Task: inverse folding
């Protein structure tokens, strides 16, 4: 029997500051978390802070005008880091879209822990573009199949006049010919140890 996701996260993950973002804490995995008990064969992306999401969170903190007063969609939200950062920077509304039910449970816990309110939704790529001003996609180009589906959605969003920002560490499936560089921030790739030197994670705008 699969354990209740919220109870499992509270009991087995640690509320820790995001590296480089001391004002945001997330329930984060550690070696004793036993994530296979809740994730099974699925990769628990929601249990970690990823570099593209960290870069977007840095960007919203450094440039709150990029989200203040806006309606923001955090696409492929995972832990909810990007949406939480947008809410803390003054976004009017935030939708965190995440296909994994355990991820949606993590977003609920993480947003409450950080004192912000976000709307939590399943995978919005199947339902069209909601009424938002900005789509923020952190670390959504990690797999060719996912990248293809996400890019089609981001193109559709941009065609409807929605601003699209992408945070990524430079993965091979990024559509570089369609991207305009915006900023870069230090971040570690998922899997790098705490003593590994930081790399650059980038913010791009879909042209």
Result:
């Amino acid at each position: 029997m699969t354990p209740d996701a919220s109870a499992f996260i509270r009991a087995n993950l640690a509320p820790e500051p995001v590296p480089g973002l001391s004002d945001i804490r997330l329930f984060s995995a550690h070696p004793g978390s036993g994530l296979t008990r809740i994730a099974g064969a699925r990769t628990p992306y929601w249990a970690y802070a990823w570099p593209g999401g960290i870069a977007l969170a840095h960007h919203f903190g450094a440039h709150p005008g990029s989200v203040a007063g806006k309606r923001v969609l955090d696409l492929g939200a995972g832990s909810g880091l990007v949406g939480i950062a947008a809410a803390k920077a003054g976004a009017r509304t935030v939708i965190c879209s995440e296909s994994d039910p355990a991820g949606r449970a993590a977003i609920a816990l993480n947003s409450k822990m950080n004192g912000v309110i976000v709307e939590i939704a399943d995978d919005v790529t199947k339902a069209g573009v909601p009424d938002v001003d900005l789509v923020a996609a952190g670390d959504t180009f990690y797999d060719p199949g996912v990248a293809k589906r996400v890019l089609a959605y981001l193109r559709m969003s941009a065609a409807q006049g929605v601003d699209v920002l992408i945070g990524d560490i430079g993965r091979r499936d990024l559509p570089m010919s369609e991207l305009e560089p915006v900023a870069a921030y230090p971040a570690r790739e998922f899997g790098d140890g705490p003593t590994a030197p930081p790399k650059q994670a980038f913010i791009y705008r879909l042209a």
